[in-house]
Each structure stands twice: as structure tokens, then as C-alpha cells.
Amino acid sequence: MSEPILSTQGLTREFRGFVAVNGVDLQVMPGNIHALIGPNGAGKTTCFNLLTKFLAPTRGTIHFKGRDITGMKPADVARLGLVRSFQISAVFAHLTALENVRVALQRGRGASFDFWRSEEVLHNLDQRARELIEDVGLSEFVNTPAVQLSYGRKRALEIATTLALDPEMMLLDEPTAGMTHEDVERIVALIRRIRAGRTILMVEHNLSVVEGLCDAITVLTRGRVLAEGDYATVSRHPEVIEAYLGSEHV
Amino acid sequence: MFSLGFTRPQLIALAVMVAVIAIAPMAVYPVFMMKIMCFALFACAFNLLIGYVGLLSFGHAAYFGMGCYLSAYAAKHWGFPAEICVLLGGIVAAAMGAVFGAIAIKRQGIYFSMITLALAQFTYFLCTQMAFTGGEDGIQNVPRPFLLGFLSLSNDMAIYWMVAVVFLVGFLAIFRIIHSPFGQVLKAIRENEPRAISLGYRVDDYKLLAFVLSTFIAGAAGGMKSLVFGIASLSDVTWQASGQIVLTNLLGGMGTVFGPVVGAVIINTLEFYLSPFGSWVTITQGLIFVACVMVFRRGVIGELGARFKVAL
Ligand SMILES: Nc1ncnc2c1ncn2[C@@H]1O[C@H](COP(=O)(O)OP(=O)(O)OP(=O)(O)O)[C@@H](O)[C@H]1O
Ligand SMILES: [Mg+2]
Fold first, then answer.
1. Which of A92, A109, A114, A157 to mutate to test binding with chain B, by most B CBs within 10 Å of its CB?
2. What are the backbone angles phi and psi of residue A8, rounded to the nearest 5°?
3. What's the rounded mean pLDDT across residues B242-256?
4. Which CATH number fits domain A1-81+167-250: 3.40.50.300, 3.40.720.10, 3.20.20.70, 3.90.850.10?
């Protein structure tokens, strides 16, 4: 069996005495789509914030690709190839869809500090940006400011922007939340397509999406890991049924 | 190559601005016009931070004032040519900006502003104490240096053209910075800083570079001012001077290209006409501030741009 690409050991985060994430040992295998599920307030987003260094853990360590990243800065974690999306869609509101994606491409391909050159030089990234935008089905909105896009389309744009970095591992926080049925299907199909050569860890409330998409599942409640395994295993777990599935899937 | 990325309305506005600069000295005092251009460039430098990075530096007069002192000192005691004096003002201000910026940028929002203010007050204190600034007296009777070492600037119109050229070069440089690959990253940071970080941008580095560029231009603007008036004094490093440049931007329109220039014209004109009435200057500025905040938040140019749906 291969080594996990991402693992945590005793990951803990307290907020003034309240333990939001409590001794989590997480192991994500390379190439997997791994779901992190759990009821509201379980600590999923906090986990993401810890993994990407947006929050510092109170205790515990994080390893990515064999390196201890516990003390790293968030931008440097992203540069290592661990890139996140946000639960509240994060776009650059007053930039167009094209510019949104281009900002991500620009980081990888240099010129980001060139303050004396014309922004015209960025046009050589346009074609790649258009391809990425087409990939998520936003072709007709290339020149639309992100702020004018519908919620579902903002999420799609966010994924296109993340993909522009071609990250080895993506963390998606509820990529389908608040979407129409069609949008959900489009995103699921997209995730299937982009998973090649990548590892994905996603928070997802929609269990049919999890069932169809994910290879491994970790269930979190009140900051602790309740169960782990594939869908069949986890969905048979009595405590999971009670704590999570029970309330929503009777 | 030379379009520089100006839109059509902006090109027209630019043409109007250049025409005004060229014709104005026939109608108004050149020294008054030069004062406006120095403060307009200072305001544009400030706008680079507030309008395009979202950083409210509440102590920008420190850099403008330091530019004043350095340039005046270099002209009076070292006999440097004018362009070197101005450049020196910019360089020293930028060096100071690099140190102060590195300290302030570690903090966000209001804390950033408070630290910049504290550091500016610290600078003010140093200026009252240090020998080279002349304390309360300032540096007076600064002779106008020669341009390039041989062109006399003692005639007001001669130095007028130098100031006009430096102003325009500075103005265009800021426009270029905003419309550069770097400027694009700045906009992304302003729009959504966590997202920029999550894409791997070390945002502090970008903010710091913007801060240094802004303080360089502010320092150069100060450097010109002291050559025009032949004096560098404490009044240019006060927190009131910092406040005035905030007001200038608020009035003209933050985050617009021409707003700071228009703001500087209005503020300086008011000051010119109201100065005989003493405290009326302060009262008027207070009222303008209130009006800006309550009625036209986007400033003169911002509101105009919104009305006609153009970016000015
Ligand atoms: N910055 C913070 N300060 C204090 N408490 C916090 C903070 N961030 C999160 N929490 C608390 O930690 C707990 C876990 O929050 P988190 O956002 O991680 O949950 P979640 O599993 O993502 O929930 P949801 O499904 O609603 O998105 C919640 O009780 C929340 O109130
Ligand atoms: Mg969450």
C-alpha cells in the first residue's frame, strides 16, 4: 500500500476553550477522491483552514507529500500543490471571469512583480484561461465580471481558477452547495474529469454525490472522527446513521 | 506601444489635463499651479495604495515631508542639480517606506492605518529633533538648483516645466503600475485577499512593493515642492498633512485615475481663496469631508464616472 499524500496526526484546534477540531488523524491516499462529511458545525471547514494553514493548529502535525507543513505559510502550502476552495464562493468580484482565471495562471507563469510592463503581456495567458473556462461550462461569460454571475457559476469559476494552478491536491469545501440540480451534475461531471492525476478532498453534504464520486469517506462529528472507510462501510456504521444519516435520511 | 492602455474617455481627460497644464500659467500664478501639481502627484501616490491595494496609509506625509527635507538639504548644502535632489527625495522616502511598510503590512485594516500613523508621528518627532531638518525653523532659503547642472530654474516658468514633466511622468508611471501584471495581482488582493493567498500569492510582498513605489513617488513630489518654494518645514510632516491627502482622495475619488488630481485642484484652490479668512479653511475642509462621506462617497470623479458609465 502506498503512502498517504496528506496526513494529520492528532490535529486539534481550540477557540477559547471550545474544541472545534479534536485529535483528528486523517489519511488521504494519492489519486483518491476523499469526502469529509459531518453535520453542521462538525469542524470540516476548520479542518480545511488548518490543512491550508489559514489557521494554526493548537496541537498536532500535518504532512503533505512526506513533508511536515505544520509551520508553513498558507501561500507556500499552495505553492507546494495543495490548493483549496472556500465554502463561501471566493472569486475576484470585479474582475471578469477571464481575469479571475488569469490571476491564477499568472502566479505560475511569472511576471507577477513586473510593475513596469503593460498588462498586455498577460494576453498570452488568455487562450489557456479560455480553455479552463470552457471546461467548466462558462464560455459565454468569459468577459462577465464575476460579481454578475449566478451562485452556481461563481462556484464553477472558482474551480476553474483553482484548476489553473494544476494542483496535485485540491480541497473543495461544499462545491455543490446551493446549486440547482443541473449545476450539481455539471460539477460532478467536472470533478470526474479533473480527478486524473490529482487527489481531491471535499466537504459535501449531498450524499448521493458522495456515493457516486468518492473512494473514501471520513465522518466528523463535534471535531472528532466518527467513522472512516468507503461508502458502504460508513453508511452501515450505526453511530453514523444515528449522528448524521439518521437525521436526514430516514 | 504608446497607447499605454488608456481608454478613450481617459485619453480625452489626459489631453484636457495636459492642455490645462500648458495654458494655465498664462492665467494663474505658476507657483500656485506647481503647488497643485506637487500635491496632485502626492495624492496619486496615496491613491495607488488606498484605491488599488485597499491600504489606508494614515501617515503618508512622513514620506512627502522627508522628500521635502532631503531635496532641500541636497540643494542647499550639497549643491546637487535639481533632478538629483528630487530623485534623492524619492529614494530616501522609499527606503523609509520599505522599513515602515514592512512593519505596518504585518497588520490588517485599521491596525495597519494606526501603525502607519504612529510611525509618521515618530518621524515628525525625529524631524523636530534632528539637526539636518533645522527643527522648528526647517530648511529655509533653499536656492533653486540648476537642472542637469546647467539650466537655471530661477525663473518660475523654467521650473514650472520641470515640475510639469515630473508630474506627468509620475502620473503615467502610476497608471502603468495599475495596468501592469503586478497591478493585476494588486487588484486581486484588494478584491479577495484570502483567495489570492490560497492561489499561492505571498500577498505581503506585493503590498510592500506597492508601498515602496507609492512612498517613492510621494517623496519625489515632496522633493519638487521644496525646490519650488525654497523651503522645507515641519508642516509637511504633520498628521494634518497626512489627513489632507486622505481628504483630497476622498473628494476627488479613490481608485480613479484622475480623482486625486481633481481633488488636489479643489482643495488647493479652496485653501488659496479661503486662507485670508484663517480658520475658514479648516471649517470648509471639515464640511467637505462630511459631504463626501454622506452624499458622494465615490468622490467627484467617481460619481462622474458612475453617471456616464466610464472609468476615469
Ligand atoms: N474563528 C472561529 N472562532 C470561534 N469559533 C469558531 C471559529 N471558526 C469556527 N468556529 C466554531 O467551530 C465549529 C466548527 O465550525 P466549522 O465551520 O468548521 O464547521 P463545518 O463542519 O464546516 O460546518 P458547516 O457544515 O456548517 O459548514 C463551529 O461550532 C464554529 O462555531
Ligand atoms: Mg463548513
1. A92
2. -125, 150
3. 89
4. 3.40.50.300
